[in-house]
Every structure is written in C-alpha cells, then in structure tokens.
Amino acid sequence: MQIRLTVLGPRGGHAEQTAGGCDVLVTAPPGTPLAAVTGALAAAAAAAGTAPAPGSADAVAVFAGSRRLDAERQTLGAPPLVDGAVVSLYGPIAPWSHGLVPAAGARARLHVVAGPDAGGVHLLRGGQVRVGRSAEADVPLDDPDVSRLHCAVTVTDAGAVTVTDLGSTNGTTVDGTAVHDRPVPLPPGATLRLGESAVRLRAGAEALEGLPVLPTVPDGEGRLRISRRVPCPPPAPPSAGTVSGPGRAAPPYAAASGPGRGAGASEEIEQGRADRPRPRGDVTHGTGFVHPRGADPADGRPGRGGLGAWARRLAGGRPAGGPGDGRDGGTGAADTAGYTAGRPTGHPGAAPPDDGPCPDLSEILLAALGPGPRLWERGADHPDALTVRLGTVRRAAGAVAPLSVDLREAGSLGLAGPRPRLLALARSVLAQLAALHGPGSLEIVLLAAGRAPGGASGGPSPDGGRCPDWSWLGWLPQLRPARGQDCRLLLAYDREQAAARTEELVRRLADRGTTGPGPGREPGPEPGRGPLTVVVVDGDPGTAELRETVTRLAEHGPAAGIHLLCLAETPAATPASPLAVTLAAAAEVSPAFRVCGAVGLLSGAVATTVRVVGRDTDPAGAPLATVDGVSAAWAERFARALAPLYETDTARETAAARPVPLPRSTRLLDELGLARATPAALLARWAEPAAPPAGAGAGLPRAGAVLGAGACGPVTADLVADRGPVLVGGAPGTGKTELLRSLAASLAAGERPDRLSLVLVDGGGDGGGGSGAGLRVCGDLPHASTYLAAGDPVRMREFAQALTGELKRRAELFGDHPYEAYAAGETAARQPAAGPAPRVVAPRRAADGAAPGTGHASGHGTLKLRARGAAPAAAAGAAGEAAGPPPRLVLLVDDFDILVDPALGNPGRPAAGSVVRALDAVARDGARLGVHLIAATGRPDRTARTAADREAVLRVSLGARAPGSPEDPGDRGEDLPPGRGTLHRPGGPATAFQTGRVTGRIPRTATLRPTVVPLDWARAGDPPTRRPVRELGNGPTDLALLASAMERAAREAGARPAPPLM
C-alpha cells in the first residue's frame, strides 16, 4: 500500500497553504497503525524545514484538521489518512477533509461562476461580507477590474440578502441593474457582476439540505471506491425567460477550507451538487467550437490554409463597430453568444451555465468535493466528451453564457498569453476534464520539459523548471499510468521523461495505424475502442526531435483519441500587438500551434479576455469572452479531493481494455484478485452471481478458469461456454505442469467444492515424488476428489472403468437433456415456493463423515485424498440425486502424450489404452454431461489422432508468441520466460499470456517495514524503482495458502466435497 500525504508543521497555516509543507510517500502493509510512521513523518517534516526535529522523548501528535488522531487505533489508508490528505504535527490546522463537515448556521452560498478567479464557493452565515481584490476582503477575487473593496453582501437576521456598492471604480450590477451605495435585494439565482467576475447567490435553507452525494467505500489502502453511479437526469428544455433558482435540497454539510479566504461571515465550502435537470447545450446556450467554418463536418474535408493564411486573415479587416477600449483586444464582447459549429446559439433567456454541458467552475468544485452526481459522468462515447469551457460571455439583462470548445472536433487546442493568466486558464480546462471524465475514460499526460521563466505567480521558479506550476496536477487519478507506461505518474519534467512519454503515445499511433491528414479531420476513437488522452504541452518541448514528435501527435493524434493542449507564453493581444503577432509568437514558442484546430488567445491590457480562433475561420467573427480561470490553491484543493477516488469495476469495464507489455512472471493470486486469500474472500467469490451461458439458467455450477496475465488483463477460459476440451502443448520446460496447477487452482477459486470436482491425472507417473512433483500438489484443494499417477496397470484400469461408469450414469440420469437443463430443473424443483434457495447450504453433521482425512499415497500410485464413508460415485448415485444435480467434473491430465504412446519399459503401458479410451469418451460427450477435459502434451504429434485433439475447442501453445502481441523488452528471439504462451480460440485472434504461477513461495511483502520518503514530483515521470520481491525460503506456497483458505471456507459454507471416482 502506498499513500501520499502532506505534512505541515505546528505553524503550517491554512490547509490550502501547503507550499511550506512536505509531500511524502508512505509505503506500508495494509492495516499498519499510524504509530508505526509518526516518527518518520516528523523526521521528514524536520528535514524539509516545516517542523522542528522531534526529541527522543517527545510524543509526536498528528492532527487531521482540528482532530487529533489516535496513533494506535488509526490505521494508514483508512479515512482520514487517504491518498492526498493533509496532516499537521504537534498542533491542529484549519479543517481539511475529503469528507463533509456540518455547515450549521449557513443561510446562503456565493458561487463565483465566472471570471479570472472563478470557482470559489463561500458560505454566508449572516452579517456583512465584503467582496474585493484586497486581502482584507472576506471574499477576495484576483480580478484586476475589481476594486480593493468592491461591494458588500449582507444577510439579515430574517434571511434576506442585499448588496451594496462600496464606491467601486467599475461599478456593480445585479442581473444588469446598477447597484449604488444603497442596499439592493439580491434574490436567489441572481447574477452579481463586479469587474470581469460573475457571482451567483444560492440562498434558502432548502439550498443547503439534501444535495446528493455519491457514496464512497474505503478500501483500507488509501483509496475511496465510488460504489454507485448516479445517472444524469434526462435533458429538459429550460423555461424561457427564467433564471433557475437554487435547485432542490442540499445537505447541511460543507468542508471549510479555513479562514483567510472568507473570514468573518463568509467561508469557502465543499459540497455536492443539486440533483436537477440539466438542459443540453443545443436547447440552451452553445457548447463551443465544433466545426470551424471552411470545413465540411460531413465528410471531414478540411479547408485550405495554415499559419500564413491565419496571419493574413488576422491582419485583415475588423468588425464594423471598430475597436473597443483596448481591454478586449479591440472588439467588444457584449454581442458574442455561445458558439457551436462556429455559429452563435442560445437566446438571452437561456438557463444559467451550470445547467448545461459546460458547468461553471464552482459546480466543478462541488462535484469533486461531494463527490456529486456530475463527477465522472462522461465516457469516451458521451456526446459532450472533451467539451471544455474557456470563458463567459455577457448577455442581456446581466446573464452569462459559456464559450466552449469541443476537443474532439478541434483536434488539438492551443492557448497563448501571459503566463499567470495562461496557467489559470489551463488549470480551469484540466479541472473540467478531470471532474467530468473518470480515469477509465480519460488519461492526462504532462510534457513540461522546458525551463520556465517564472513560477505560477509570475516570479522566478526556485528550480528554474516548470514543476512548481504543475505540482497540483500530480494528485489527479487521471495521471496514474494504466497502459503499462514505465513511470509512476504521466509527467515529464526533463527531456528523458518527455522522450519516454512521447514514445508511448507514438506507439499508440502505430498500433492504431493512424495516418490521418490533420487535426480535427478524423473522428476520435469509436465507442468502446479505448479511453481518451489529453496531452498538456507547456511551451517548447525541448529538442528538435521532440518538437517534431509533438507536432505529429497534434496532427495525427485525434484519430487515435489523443488530443493536445498546447500552452505558449506570449504578450496579450492588444491593438498595439494584434492577434496575428500573438499567433506568430505562439508558433515560435510551440511549433504544434501551427496544426492546432483551434486556439485561444488571451487579449486586453490585463489579459482577462479570451478570443477563440479556429482554422479557416474569419477572425473578425471569432468568439470573444471573459476568461474563466482558477487559482493554484483552488486547483490543489480540487485535485486532492479526487486523489483517493476510483471507479467501480463496472465503470472500469465500460472502457476498452488498455494493452500493456506482458510480465515475465506473475502470481495467479494477483490475477484472481485474491492478493489476500482468506475464507471470507473465497466465500464472496463463490456467492457471486454469474452470467449463465446461452440456454442455461442462472445459479448453475460454473467452470471458469484464469490462465494468467494478458496484455489487456487476465486471460480466462470458460469450460461451460466453450463446450469442448482444452489442449495444452509445449516442449519440456515451457511450464505445462504449472499451467495445469494454475487452472486447477483458479477453477477451485471460482466455485464451491460441492458444485465442482477435480480429477487429477499424471500421465508420466509420480515424477519421483517431492512437493513439486506433477499435479500431486493440487491434491490439497478441497475440490480434488481423485488423483491418479499412471504406473500401476491395475489402478489405471480401475480408473478407466470408474470414469466410464460415471459417464454412463450421467447419461442415464440426464436422458436426452444436457447437463445445464437437468441441473436447472433439479435446482428449480428444490427451491421453496417463497423464492430461490440460498447458495449456502446447512452445515454438515459429524455423522456424515465431514471431517477430511489425511491424504496419503497408496503403493499403487493413487492418492486417496479424503477418507470418508461415502461409496464411489457409481455406488453413490442415489445419494447424489437426493442432494441435487451432480457437480461439474473437470479432468486435468498432464503428459497426455505419454499415456497415448508410452515407452516400452513404462509399467503402465498395458492399461494406458483403456485410460486413453475413457478420456476420448470425455472429449466426445463430456461437455453435454457436465464433464470437461484439460490435457497437456509435450509431443502434439503423438496425440494428433486422439479425440481430445480432434474435439479441442481451446488450444494453448506454450513457448511461442502470438502474432502482434505486446512483447516484454527482455524477450528476444527464443528467450521466452517459462509460462509464456498463446491461447487460440476458434475463429478468433490468438491471445498471448504469461501463466500465473501458483507454486511459488509467498513473497516477503508482509515483512516489509513501513517507510516514509519525500515525494519528488520532478522525478515522478521516471521509471519506478522496483524492489526485488524475494520469496520466503521456508514459507508456504500460494497453492498451499489457497488450499488452506478453501478448506476453511468450505467448512463454513457446509459445502461437502464430491466423492472420489474410485
């Protein structure tokens, strides 16, 4: 388990002010108490200069917000110590939590819905709240057009809200009506305009109660699983000429971010989102730049032109109205509406922007902090996927509408302007993408290899690089590698990291065969073909090779679902520095600008206006809006809220599998999801409902197996659905026996022993004895009813007769019906009228001989696994029928070629033919009777004429690669690791896999000591340092561990294993 924490000293300040804190990576086994690392946390904070060095006798007190944590009872990875949490030492800090704290006494909320410092949410608890640019303001706004103390919002004792202008320079309006020095009512839903910012009031008790929040479930390892996805309400047209109110109920919960950003009567909050219908953009305001003029969206044919054409257009005529006051780059924005397909849409009475496909940034924050129902609502095939809001347009009566861009249509987006405003806009865009698209639908890659002339605030960066500007981005779950990338996070702060990230992306282009002609001219990935990728390119990539590669990605990447967000630091566009000059300067900084389908240029004297220009679009009519940006503190708070969250397995399965290189070795328990093989975990697996095969009823015995790790996840085989033998072939040393052991273990892990029985046959004999000989080691599984080591002809004939008799008994029992039909009828007949019978049967009585005996090998080479009073299967037919349908029977045969063609001196040669004939009968008729065959051969030429070979549905070739399969960098020529194989399905592609090992000793992970190391964001893009995992020399094997857990689980479930064949 690894979690990332930020440690503050006793005077660390507010929760957001973590620049003086120390980011650390804590590695520990699950369930480790906090006391095990408190000393290391204090030492790390002292080394970073954020806390004094602890004395030998000092007790290190750890606080989460204002709550002191019990170091002995609080475990690492359990809330509040989840990934991204902030803790302080020796004293409390301002409240900080991934959950919600009561917002008692709050009567209203102020949402900063638009402007250069958007996204803030402030609680109003009564009294006067001053809004302005000064740090003395209760609600500070980083907007140069806002006065130091601009206006005052007052909440009376009766709950009424009024606003008063405090003598501001640029004035204050409420829904377009000017406000002076006398109080003016501020009704719920009204838009308060001050400077370039827009603030909306959410008031009333109902607005603070009942906001829906998605439930989360801690996994004990620092993550919070979103256990339920709340579907978005269907689109509904807004009421014309109305402004939506505060919405439905909202819970009386909020998490304060601490004083300083709203002291006095106001404080920032963290809440969920009201669950109300959200009209789509096509019935309200526009959704952005979709099809630039000059291109035909129907056939994808682009218009002509390039950077030179853009410059010629930008240097041409201006609108008839002439330039404005210079703050917007020469064109007024009052008449510009939302844009879709380059055409204005919407109407003055459109609904507020938070109700459309482009929610305002305050709603984005609430979705993350709740988490609210809009969190991760969009997949790769969502109609509004990758639609982002760049700014806000003023409309009639003080209303606002978003100006947005669809990255799928634009292909790649370029942003240019002064760095402080440019970073604020980039943070806004990335926050929208991360909030609306889950990690299963979107990954974000950062390329920031160049040297930054200034930090996030415009001052010099301490290390001369861009890392301080993007440290917040590393908390987002969308930056975790999920395609086999060799890094800890998808970051690149130097040229080596940038080369690795671009190589990974270019490899995807090659895999997809992408050779598209340009950006925005080919559709993105088809639904189900894979997640989307947004690559942030901050400035010059570095080398000439990287520039060429990034330009190629911008040009051809959109066809493979790869979209670039290119940032270029340039002066703001003004009448003295027109758009053409700004665009040319941006292309010099970032050559990929030349092929971006749309660019956003910051304009005006203070760079608070954004103009969106598309390829082949007349710049005279280019959309213009006030930029929507967010602060670095806002971005870090947002990213930390998302850090511990992850999607449910169902949500992950909706995204296409991401191919990764095959490992050289893997544990079967990891592929089964049983890293902790406990009886409770096995009981849960056995109780899971499974999708029945075609024509079968639900709740029937299953026979699903996991072969190992594939390029897109575990490689599985379903013996019920495939209805035919499985034939494994490979030369000695390729891992045939280990694969059979893994198949036996995975089959047993998927079904109870009273519903699935295993028969183990070692065709080569006992193999000389020892714990690792043949399939004998699988005899400890409670499902293993019979073991035969070929060598004694008497026992071999007895086995052949017993197997043939079992087939005949089942044929007589089922008649003309297949096993599934008979089992479904028997199950239905035994269900009570009130409903289906429970999966767990009553415990066994001691008189039934439930206690298993000690397995021992007879002198004839047959392992009698359990001594019980039950007769062999043929004699126990009546008892089996009384207990329900017989279990599925799976035969695993190793060295099948030796049985087919034994050597002259083989002692089992006289009876080998009878065993082979019985196995051939299983191959021909076993699937209908619920009997399945898995055979391994080292000489396929010897077994080619057997029924097992003729009837085989699945074939596994060990020691060979599948054509086009991902290769491990160490695989060269014939140097394939043992267990590397290929699964062949009829009529389907070959699937490469690495066999899951089950007989290896358990690793020493349980003995690892907890560690705390400083988190170096600049090195997060390097390949992870892999500590070699050593096996316990005298410890149990994974198979023994699994068998022991299965025995206990079977006893708890009352699942009586099937009787042996003989």
From TrEMBL:
Region (Disordered): 212-360, 508-531, 955-995, 1016-1035
One MF term in the entry's GO annotations: ATP binding
Domain FHA: 129-179
Keyword Ubl conjugation among record annotations: no
Coiled coil (UniProt feature): none
Biased composition (Gly residues): 318-332
Pfam families hit by this protein: FHA, FtsK_SpoIIIE
SUPFAM superfamilies attached to this UniProt entry: P-loop containing nucleoside triphosphate hydrolases (SSF52540), SMAD/FHA domain (SSF49879)
CDD domains xref list: FHA (cd00060)
Amino acid composition bias (Low complexity), ranges on this chain: 239-258, 333-349
GO biological process: cell division
InterPro entries from the UniProt entry: AAA+_ATPase, Cell_Proc_Reg/RNA_Proc, FHA_dom, FtsK_dom, P-loop_NTPase, SMAD_FHA_dom_sf
Keyword Metal-binding included in the entry's annotation: no
PROSITE patterns: FHA_DOMAIN, FTSK
Sequence positions that bind ATP: 730-737
Chain intervals with Basic and acidic residues compositional bias: 270-283, 293-302
Keywords associated with the record: ATP-binding, Cell cycle, Cell division, Nucleotide-binding, Phosphoprotein
Record-annotated FtsK domain positions: 712-973
Protein name in the entry: Cell division protein FtsK
